[in-house]
């Protein structure tokens, strides 16, 4: 959510930021709404003051037996009592209209974010690892994995497209990945493990910028709750409406949860395989920090995600997203793309974003500055994948495949696999 005071004071800078996002100027329209609302507030306050003043004057006029003045004042008070609720209602409606307009405007990009219209404008920052050289033609996971327990047919029969039924050692490998990620993030990176709800209310989704803009991308239950698209929603909103002590910051939270996405905007993309599912698991990372810490925390969070890929010995590259490819709430984002030899392509496996105070304003989450009892500031929030479990499973299958169709288990996962060292076709 944007601060209307910032827009009042910096309309050109606000529009310049939107232009970098490929959007038309909006400051003038927002400020026109704001000006009308502020004029009504001024009129309302003046009317209330006059009503109180006239009400007191009525008693004085009656005491002085000045009936004409008393009657005139009474008529004035009656007129104000009739007019003021209408002004109040109009001011409230304009306030809601302004909030609705602000709620669908994306965050402004950071100064160091590269300009670009789409993913072609992203900047590669670094690479890690060397893609394996195979002495056979590597296969895509969608062709290799069904014999090993990745059952697309049963998933589709039970639930429809973009659902998968995992069996046997494939299911165990999937579970091992999630547990390995969670253990690494809690034991080595200092994140506090959480087990949040996966069903949330409207205000929870709104506060984390998923509503109203992206309602069609999520699933809603018959009683009005939402299935979370990521536990970023639950974790970040756990401090919604709170005034935190500065000593409690930074807060670092993680959770391994089911996530649900309708993929409304992804028709025709990744229809084969396990890359883009309606239901999936993700180890989410969330940080809540002071404004001056958020840039360093963004680097730290991204390193926490990179560490998982390095422990699994999966080659990846790190991209700084351009203005045209960033998410709605982000002011700066790093994507990690893992190498998939079967596809002969880099594919996104993690996205780590600094949202600044964009979500905190929507959630009304502040902290009390130490030593200054009356001074409060909005926190900054960050979120990232550490990692997406299903996509990591795909990366392990394609990078650790063997010529006979089996898949070796990465060394880092062996403690979780109960003696299983490779996935092999059964029967």
What does the model show?
With 427 residues, this protein is of the alpha+beta class. Helix content is 40%, strand content 19%. The protein has an eight-stranded mixed β-sheet with strand order 1-10-11-12-15-9-8-4. Strands 7-13-14 form a three-stranded mixed β-sheet, with no helix packed on it. Helix 3 (27-63) runs antiparallel to helix 4. The protein starts with a helix and ends with a strand.
Number of helices: 12
Strand content bin = 15-25%
**Tell me, what's the shape?**
elongated
Q: Mean pLDDT across all residues, rounded?
A: 96
Based on CA atoms alone, the radius of gyration comes out at 28 Å
Order of helical and strand elements: HHHHEHEHEHEEHEHEEEHEEEHEEEHEE
**Protein structure class:** alpha+beta
Q: Tally of extended strands? A: 17
Strand count, sense and barrel status of the largest sheet are: 8 strands, mixed
- The strand line-up of the biggest sheet is 1-10-11-12-15-9-8-4
What is the strand and helix layout of this fold?
Layout: H1 4-9, H2 11-20, H3 27-63, H4 67-103, E1 123-128, H5 141-144, E2 150-151, H6 152-159, E3 165-166, H7 168-187, E4 192-193, E5 199-200, H8 202-207, E6 226-227, H9 232-237, E7 243-245, E8 251-260, E9 279-289, H10 294-311, E10 316-320, E11 332-340, E12 345-354, H11 358-363, E13 366-368, E14 376-378, E15 380-388, H12 389-399, E16 407-408, E17 422-423
Parallel strand pairs: 4-8, 7-13
Antiparallel strand pairs: 1-10, 2-3, 5-6, 8-9, 9-15, 10-11, 11-12, 12-15, 13-14, 16-17
